């Protein structure tokens, strides 16, 4: 059964979906009124809410939630590689491609990173340009900067040319 909630956080509204006891989606809800909630509030959703809020308050550096992102085998490899980036650290798309087992697939890795269905917990915000600048983020660069600053990560603000 699919269950979902929207939570208010310091960075805006977040949509969390859980299916069969695992988180399948965490996304930025913003002012999106087309999101429909389903099911009930489960212990997994309550724990996800608690851990996300704790992270955003600077009290948590890792997550311990069951995850089940839906995607292709390649996307799954990329998302697994994202989970190896420690709190407060950043890597380039090239490094992410290497960690995902295909160092020449930087563009494909970038697209898989962009399609990450469980933002923040699967830390796609920790991937930056090779020159250390912030590039691309579904929630926008200001939010990416906020998350990296929260974690104390090093980066150069702004988009690479």
TrEMBL record:
Family named by the database record: Belongs to the MGMT family.
Location of this chain's protein in the cell: Cytoplasm
GO cellular component, one term: cytoplasm
Name the record gives this protein: Methylated-DNA--protein-cysteine methyltransferase
Reactions listed under catalytic activity: a 4-O-methyl-thymidine in DNA + L-cysteinyl-[protein] = a thymidine in DNA + S-methyl-L-cysteinyl-[protein]; a 6-O-methyl-2'-deoxyguanosine in DNA + L-cysteinyl-[protein] = S-methyl-L-cysteinyl-[protein] + a 2'-deoxyguanosine in DNA
Record keywords, A-Z: Cytoplasm, DNA damage, DNA repair, Methyltransferase, Transferase
BP GO annotations: DNA alkylation repair; methylation
EC number: 2.1.1.63
GO molecular function annotation: methylated-DNA-[protein]-cysteine S-methyltransferase activity
NCBIfam families (alphabetical): ogt (TIGR00589)
């Amino acid at each position: 059964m699919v269950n979902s909630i929207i939570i208010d956080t310091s960075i805006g509204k977040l949509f969390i979906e859980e299916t069969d006891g695992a988180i399948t989606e965490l996304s930025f809800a913003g002012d999106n009124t087309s999101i429909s909630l389903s099911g009930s509030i489960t212990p997994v959703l309550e724990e996800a809410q608690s851990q996300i809020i704790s992270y955003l308050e600077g009290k948590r550096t890792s997550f311990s939630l069951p995850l089940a992102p839906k995607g292709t085998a390649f996307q799954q490899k990329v998302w697994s590689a994202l989970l190896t980036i420690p709190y407060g650290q950043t890597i380039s798309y090239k490094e992410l491609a290497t960690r995902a087992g295909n160092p020449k697939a930087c563009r494909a890795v970038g697209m898989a990173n962009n399609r990450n269905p469980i933002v923040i917990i699967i830390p796609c915000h920790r991937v930056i340009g090779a020159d250390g600048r912030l590039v691309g983020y579904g929630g926008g660069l200001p939010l990416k900067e906020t998350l990296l600053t929260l974690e104390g990560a090093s980066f150069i603000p702004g988009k690479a040319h």
